[in-house]
Write a structure and sequence with these properties.
- By secondary structure, this protein is mostly beta strands.
- Strands 1, 3, 4, 5, 6 and 8 form a 6-stranded antiparallel β-sheet that branches. Strands 2-7 form a two-stranded antiparallel ribbon.
- Strand 4 and strand 5 form a beta hairpin.
- About 7% of the residues have low confidence.
- The structure holds calcium ion (CA).
- Calcium ion binds next to loops.
Amino acid sequence: MNRICCLICALMLLAAPLGALGESAGDPETIVTIVRTPEQAQAERPPCFPDPADDYIPLPETENFALGKPVHSGAHTDVYVDKNVNDGKTDTYWESKGFPAEITFDLQGAFTVSTVAVCLNPSSIWEPRIQEIAVEISQDGENYIQVSPAGKYQFDAATGNRVRIDFEAVQACFVKVIFTLNSSSRTGGAQAAEICVY
Ligand SMILES: [Ca+2]
């Protein structure tokens, strides 16, 4: 019994200062500020950070004559089909089945062209690589002339993983892009997320 009394007394002593504090200090006024964050629908870059796209190789702002047009390579790898190469999305890509690899665009009309851009996904997951590329054009889809000889082009995420092949302006109904090398060790074929014709 004595032990129980001592325990109760001890608890009362402990509780007393708490009660005294509450009484002497009173109930402070509590101010609560509720901050609501805006809904984020996509990745945002604070203005103080540089835009990586500023270092991308610039592309013409004129019409891309290849976008959505009939395209044919004859041989692709796995699910990386021809139509991925001009669907306007850099997260889909065409991959050839070996080398040399040709992919031909039917522009469905005659257009004056002077640039072909070959783009990979701009993500740095796509490590730097070199692809060797030539460009030919045709009026009838059967007879082609070379407008840009095979050259080795460096793809690097730091510059947008894209290359630009400029040549003397010429009228074309068909554009053929020929790949003869891809230095990436992850594939045995050519790769392009988008090929644009300007
Ligand atoms: Ca694509």
